[in-house]
Specification:
single chain; 313 residues; alpha/beta; TIM Barrel; eight-stranded mixed beta sheet; two-stranded antiparallel sheet; 11 helices; 16% strand; disordered N terminus; binds iron/sulfur cluster; transferase; iron-sulfur; S-adenosyl-L-methionine; EC 2.8.1.8
Length: 313
């Protein structure tokens, strides 16, 4: 089990788990924050920063970093950890790809992260909208590097992934989210090995695209289970691992079982590096897209250094 900070009830049972000091973040108020919010509203764009109630929104939006969530703000799944609304989504916005590109241009982004809700209602799961967004970005801001964070495209993953890989994003991210034992309760609509296969498929189709995946900690996973997830990712040749603390967005979402200490996050990071990931981000406030631009630059440099070492042998 991870390191825990429980508060015990008088009977000695863990009554609730207190949010430790290292999780607290400042309220989101700054000129940059307000400008980012206005731009998203003006271009009719949703962000996962808001929809997922991300704790880093104050920091990221102040620096004009936002993760755009395409294909609407209503998801066809109901994962126990996620704050995004569930229901029947609206029709796809055909202007959205250009609006995303306009946002990247106006914010002067060197690196952009695009994600989406799950769209099990669409024949291609929404893959063609990802492709259109990548194409609009390449036309409008050709120097911006593109990271996409996709759903699992359940039952259509091969064709959907192939279409997106052909559009050539720089980074393809798909999160495993948790250890396989917890899937039935945490991610009931998904299959662990299908998600792993998706990551494997990206690398098989185009080894030059960086692959990335992440897990949330604090959901009751065991340490050795986390190590096994790392091994599974490495066997799928995943380049970049992110690990962050799960936070319960509302009382109706799954509870935090434990708060993993910053020291334990560092220990996980050391193990992950030893297992061969090119890049590892591991801290309580790490999220898939947190510091994504800086991490991408480091990962690209790490790959170049690795290739140079191999060539010198
Ligand atoms: S970490 Fe990602 S989701 Fe959270 S505020 Fe920053 S860009 Fe948005």
């Amino acid at each position: 089990m991870n390191e825990v900070t429980p508060i015990e009830s008088p009977e000695g049972r863990p009554a609730r788990v207190r949010k430790p000091d290292w999780i607290r973040v400042r309220a989101p108020t700054s000129k940059g924050f307000n400008e980012t919010r206005k731009l998203m509203r003006d271009l009719n764009l949703n962000t996962v920063c808001e929809e997922a109630a991300c704790p880093n929104i104050g920091e990221c939006w102040t620096k004009k970093h936002a993760t755009v969530m395409i294909l609407g703000d209503v998801c066809t799944r109901a994962c126990a950890f996620c704050n995004v609304k569930t229901g029947m989504p609206r029709v796809v916005d055909l202007k959205e790809p250009q609006h995303v590109a306009d946002a990247a241009a106006q914010m002067g982004l060197q690196h952009i992260v695009i994600t989406s809700v799950d769209r099990d209602d669409l024949a291609d799961g929404g893959a063609s909208q990802f492709v259109k967004v990548i194409e609009a970005l390449r036309r409008t801001t050709p120097d911006t590097t593109i990271e996409i964070l996709t759903p699992d495209f359940r039952n259509k993953h091969e064709a959907a992934v192939e279409a997106i890989v052909t559009a050539r994003p720089d980074v393809y991210n798909h999160n495993l989210e948790t250890v396989p034992r917890l899937y039935p309760t945490i991610r009931p609509g998904a299959r662990y090995y299908a998600s792993l296969r998706l990551l494997e498929t990206v690398k098989r189709l185009d080894p030059s695209i960086f692959t990335k995946s992440g897990v949330m900690l604090g959901l009751g996973e065991e340490r050795l289970e986390v190590h096994q997830v790392m091994d599974d990712m490495r066997s799928a040749d995943v380049d970049f691992l992110t690990m962050g603390q799960y936070l319960q967005p509302t009382p109706r979402h799954t509870k935090v079982i434990d708060f993993v200490t910053p020291k334990a996050f560092d220990a996980y990071a050391a193990i992950a590096r030893a297992k061969g990931f090119l890049q590892v981000a591991s801290s309580p406030l790490t999220r898939s897209s947190y510091h994504a631009g800086e991490d991408f630059a480091e990962m690209r440099a790490a790959r170049e250094a690795k290739l140079a070492r191999q060539a010198a042998r």
